[in-house]
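Example (one chain per record):
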Amino acid sequence: MPNVLVCIKRVPGSAGQIELTPDQQSVDTRHVGYTVSPHEECAVEAAVQVVETHGGAATVLTLGPADAIEQLREALAIGVGGAVHIEADNEAFGPADVAAAIAEVARARSEAGDGFDLLLFGTDAADTGDFQVGIRVAYALGLPVVTGVRTFQLDGDRVVATGDGPEGTEIFEVPLPAVLTVKEGGITPRYPSIPGRLKAKRAPVELIEPPAAPSGTGRVRLSLPPEQPSAVEILGTGPDAAKAVVDLLVRIGVVAQ
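Predicted structure:
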């Protein structure tokens, strides 16, 4: 039965206007809430589905401040069985530091005879856009990695992962243990139930310290993309607009000419 590790990151909510701190090193979080990236929500759901289908166990892990336990309990509330919190100031940890800490946890579990068969990550972080952690963990552990996965299935001692390539759908088959970075769109996350939330509040969370001092991000600065201009084209009113609508559909290729 598979043993799954799913890694998440506490990130600022993106429902409102995103602003950067004055030093342009991080997102200004004074007026926003926190969540996890949409990609990681799908990874958590995938971990739960693996256990529901194949048995085994799923563990959620995060590196972050004490408040990041909120995001761990959200994952516990939808069915993840265990949680690991590497308590640290995530602003001081770059992608290489985070990957090293996660890899150390995975090694320790393997040496204890409880190694992970599948390690799941989001494709990238919603706040800084870092896409390196899953790949770095795979490299550190000497495991195969598939990125940008939409869906996957376990088949014995292998995993078959499907994603989008430059020329269409791509399918990869790799042996377990393996690392997958999950992309939003192929898996629909569930909402936690009230009993699930109550159970998550009482669930124990393994608290550990970072295995080494961080080297830092090496980041120069973050930047926000320019706002996209919006325009409205009035096609007409009443029956007179029908021809204009047809012409528009032809122009954008929805209707054949």
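Caption: The chain has one domain: 3-208.
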